[in-house]
Specification:
The structure holds two protein chains of two kinds.
Chain A: H1 3-7, H2 28-37, H3 43-47, E1 61-66, E2 78-84, E3 87-94, H4 102-106, H5 111-118, H6 126-141, H7 149-178, H8 181-202, E4 211-212, E5 215-216, H9 224-247, H10 250-256, H11 264-270, H12 275-279, H13 286-289, H14 310-334, H15 352-357, H16 359-370, E6 378-386, E7 389-397, E8 403-409, H17 411-415, H18 418-423, H19 428-438, H20 442-446
Antiparallel strand pairs in A: 1-2, 2-3, 4-5, 6-7, 7-8
Helix pairs in contact in A: 5-6, 6-7, 7-8, 7-14, 7-19, 8-9, 9-14, 14-19
Chain B: E1 14-15, E2 18-23, E3 26-31, H1 36-45, E4 50-58, E5 78-86, E6 91-99, E7 105-107, H2 116-127, E8 130-132
Parallel strand pairs in B: 3-6, 7-8
Antiparallel strand pairs in B: 1-2, 2-3, 4-5, 5-6
Classes of the chains: A mainly alpha, B alpha/beta.
C-alpha cells in the first residue's frame, strides 16, 4: 500500500493543510522545520538532530490516521502518524472535530448565564471551570474580597472532590487503555460515588452551574458531612487496591515506565501544566504557588515526578487523589457557618421568600434573570489549578451584562502540543499509553 | 463594589521599555508591534520563561474612549494578549499589543515560546491575524474550507433554520 491510500486522498473529509503532509511534498528543510515545529523542538535541538528522519526513504514509511473515532483517543482526537515499521517518526494532532464555538456563544450569554456555557468545556471537571469563571467575574466586579467565608470553603470542597473524581476517571480510562479492563470498572465505580454526592448537592451529576459569580447556587444539603466522610473513608482501601493492581505490578510498570518522556525544559517551553509539568520534577502547582481561595490555610503536598514519563504522570494523579482527600478532611474541619453567597442585590438574586413580600426584591429578581447584572469595564485573567493543569479565564467587559470577550485557557489544548514530542521515536503500541497519560478532554481542547 | 475601573495611571512606570498599567491589580505591559519580540526576549531574560496563554480581542464595537489604554498607545481594532509566568518569582505578567486592521500581522513568538504554536493558529483561525514566520499557518479548529474568522465582531452568530416557524432560511 502506498502512503496515499492509507492517509486518504484529500476527499470530502480532508482537512487540507491542517493534515500532515507526506515527505515527497516537503523539502528537507521543511521536514526539519516540521520536526522542530510540529514536533515542537527548540531550534537548537532540531539542529542537533543527526538521525534526521529526512534521511529515511519514503518507501519505507507510511502515514496512518489514528482517530478521530478511535476509542482510546478520549473523544475525537485525530492523530496522523508517520511510521517506519512500528516506530513513530512524526506525529501531528488534528483537532477541531468537537468545536462548537463556545467562546463566541459566551459573548451572547450574560454573566449570569455564562456558567452553563463554561461548565461544558471540560466536562470531566465542570466545577473547576465554573470556579475560574466566577473568580474572574468577581474580580471584574470588585467583589472578590467580599465573598463569604463559607462560600469560599464550599468552593474548595467541591473543587477538590471534583479533582478526585476527575483523577479517578483518569485511573479508569488509563487502565482501560493499557488493557486493565477491571481497572476501568473500579475507576468508574469510585467516581460514581463522588458524582452521587454532586448530584445530591447540585442536582446534577455533571455540568452543574453550581458555583456562580457571587457565591454558590445553594447551601450544602443536610447530611452532607456524612456523605463526604463516607467517600473519604471508603477510598483509601480502594486506592490500596489500585496499588496492588497497577502500581506494584511488573506488567503495568513495563508498559508505562520510560514511555512518552518529556524533560522539564521542554514542558516549560511548551507551556504544559499540571501533572505533565510536575512529572518532570518542576514543583509548580497554582494552589501553592499562586494561591487562590483559602489554599494558603490548608496543608498538602505538591506531588512531583522525576522521569517525566507516563508512569510518573499516572503516579502523580494517583497520589493527588490522596492529597485532595487530605485537603477535604481539613475543609471539613474548617467549614464555617454563614452565608453561601454574597447578598449583593446587584449580583445575586434575592432569597425566594423575599420576593413574596418585597417589590424591590421582585424587581431585582426580574432584572437579574432577564437583563443580567452589569459588570464594570476592564479586562482580567484568572488562572487556577484544574486536574489537568492551569485553566485560565480571560474576560474583557465593556460595561454591559454580557462579556465583550471571554477566552478560556484550556489546559488540554496546550498540553496536547506535547503529544508529538512525547511520541517521537516511540512505538505505535505506546501511542495509546502516551495519549492516555496526557488525559486530554476534547471538550475543552476544541471548545 | 469598587469604582476604580482605571487604576492610577502612574505614567512613570516602565518595564522592558513598555508602559505598565494595572488592571484589577494585575500587571499589564503594552508593547508595540515593532518591539514585540524584543520585549518578549527581555521578559524571558527576566525569568518569565513560560507563556501560558496567547489570545486576541476584536475591539470593533468597543468604544475607543473606554479602552483604558495608556496615553501614548493608540487603540487599534485587534489586540494580542499574552500571559506569561515566572516560575521563579511566582508572578504573572500580561502583555498587550495593538494590531491595526489594515495590517493584521505580527511576528510569531514560536521561536521563543514553542508552546504558542497552537494558540497562534487558533488566533489566526478565529481572528484572521497572521503570524509571520509561523511554521504551520493553517486553521486549527474550523474546517479548512471555512470562510471568515468566527470570533471577529462582524462575523454573525448565525442561526439554526427552524422548520414550520417561518424562520429565515
Amino acid at each position: 500500500m502506498t502512503s496515499d491510500l492509507i492517509a486518504g486522498t484529500p476527499a470530502a473529509t480532508g482537512e487540507g493543510p491542517q493534515e500532515m503532509r507526506s515527505r515527497s511534498e516537503l523539502t528537507a528543510k521543511e521536514v526539519l522545520r516540521e520536526v522542530g515545529s510540529v514536533l515542537r523542538m527548540s531550534e537548537k535541538a532540531a539542529s542537533e538532530l543527526t538521525s534526521s528522519p529526512v534521511e529515511n526513504d519514503e518507501e519505507q514509511t507510511m502515514i496512518i490516521n489514528m482517530g478521530p473515532q478511535h476509542p482510546s483517543t478520549h473523544g475525537v482526537l485525530r492523530l496522523m502518524l508517520e511510521l517506519q515499521g512500528e516506530k513513530v517518526l512524526r506525529c501531528k494532532p488534528i483537532i477541531g472535530y468537537l468545536h462548537t464555538g463556545m467562546e463566541k456563544q459566551a459573548e451572547e450569554l450574560t454573566f449570569m448565564q455564562g456558567g452553563t456555557n463554561v461548565t461544558r468545556m471540560d466536562y470531566v471537571s465542570p466545577l473547576n471551570n465554573e470556579l475560574v469563571f466566577s473568580l474572574a467575574v468577581e474580580k471584574l466586579l470588585g467583589i472578590d474580597g467580599d465573598i463569604p467565608e463559607r462560600a469560599t470553603w464550599m468552593r474548595m470542597l467541591l473543587s477538590e472532590l471534583n479533582r478526585m473524581s476527575s483523577h479517578l476517571l483518569f485511573m479508569a480510562t488509563n487502565g482501560m487503555d493499557m488493557g486493565a479492563v477491571s481497572m476501568m470498572i473500579y475507576g468508574w465505580r469510585e467516581r460514581e460515588e463522588v458524582l452521587r454526592f454532586f448530584q445530591k448537592v447540585t442536582g446534577l451529576r455533571m455540568n452543574h452551574n453550581f458555583i456562580r459569580p457571587g457565591g454558590l447556587a445553594a447551601d450544602l444539603p443536610a447530611g452532607w458531612r456524612d456523605d463526604v466522610l463516607t467517600i473519604l473513608e471508603g477510598l483509601p482501601s480502594r486506592l490500596a487496591e489500585y496499588d496492588i493492581l497497577m502500581t506494584n505490578q511488573p506488567i503495568w510498570r513495563e508498559r508505562l515506565q520510560g514511555v512518552g518522556v518529556i524533560t522539564a525544559e521542554e514542558a516549560v517551553a511548551l507551556g504544559a501544566s499540571g501533572p505533565i509539568l510536575r512529572s518532570t520534577g518542576v514543583a509548580w502547582d497554582l494552589r501553592r504557588d499562586l494561591p487562590y481561595l483559602k489554599y494558603k490555610e490548608v496543608e498538602f503536598d505538591v506531588i512531583v515526578g522525576s522521569y517525566g514519563d507516563s508512569f510518573d504522570r499516572y503516579a502523580i494523579r494517583l497520589n493527588e487523589i490522596r492529597e485532595s482527600m487530605k485537603i477535604v478532611y481539613q475543609v471539613l474541619d474548617k467549614m464555617p457557618s454563614g452565608d453561601y453567597r454574597i447578598q449583593d442585590k446587584k449580583v445575586t438574586p434575592p432569597p425566594r421568600a423575599r420576593i413574596d413580600e418585597s417589590m424591590e426584591a421582585l424587581i431585582h429578581h426580574f432584572k437579574i434573570f432577564t437583563e443580567g447584572f452589569k459588570v464594570p469595564e476592564g479586562e482580567v485573567y484568572v488562572g487556577i489549578e484544574s486536574p489537568r493543569g492551569e485553566i485560565g479565564c480571560y474576560i474583557v467587559s465593556d460595561g454591559s451584562p454580557k462579556p465583550y470577550r471571554l477566552h478560556m485557557r484550556a489546559p488540554s489544548f496546550v498540553n496536547i502540543q506535547a503529544l508529538p514530542h512525547m511520541m517521537r521515536d516511540g512505538l505505535i503500541a505506546d501511542a495509546v499509553a502516551v495519549i492516555s497519560s496526557i488525559d486530554p478532554v476534547l471538550g475543552e481542547v476544541d471548545r | 463594589m469598587s469604582d476604580e475601573v482605571v487604576d492610577s495611571p502612574a505614567p512613570a512606570e516602565q518595564l522592558y521599555g513598555c508602559v505598565v498599567t494595572y488592571s484589577r491589580g494585575e500587571k499589564v505591559i503594552h508593547a508595540s508591534r515593532g518591539n514585540y519580540i524584543a520585549t518578549l526576549k527581555k521578559a524571558i531574560d527576566d525569568s518569565f520563561t513560560m507563556c501560558t496563554d496567547l489570545t486576541a480581542v476584536d475591539f470593533l464595537t468597543y468604544a475607543l474612549t473606554n479602552r483604558q489604554l495608556p496615553s501614548d498607545i493608540s487603540g487599534e481594532r485587534f489586540e494580542i494578549v499574552l500571559n506569561l509566568i515566572s516560575l521563579e518569582r511566582r508572578e504573572r505578567l500580561r502583555l498587550r499589543v495593538q494590531i491595526a486592521e489594515s495590517e493584521a500581522t505580527i511576528p510569531t513568538a514560536f521561536d521563543l515560546f514553542p508552546g504558542t504554536e497552537a494558540m497562534e493558529r487558533e488566533v489566526f483561525d478565529m481572528f484572521g491575524i497572521e503570524f509571520e514566520g509561523h511554521p504551520d499557518p493553517s486553521r486549527i479548529l474550523m474546517p479548512e474550507d471555512w470562510e471568515g474568522h468566527p470570533l471577529r465582531k462582524d462575523f454573525s452568530v448565525g442561526r439554526i433554520p427552524v422548520q414550520f416557524k417561518g424562520a429565515p432560511s
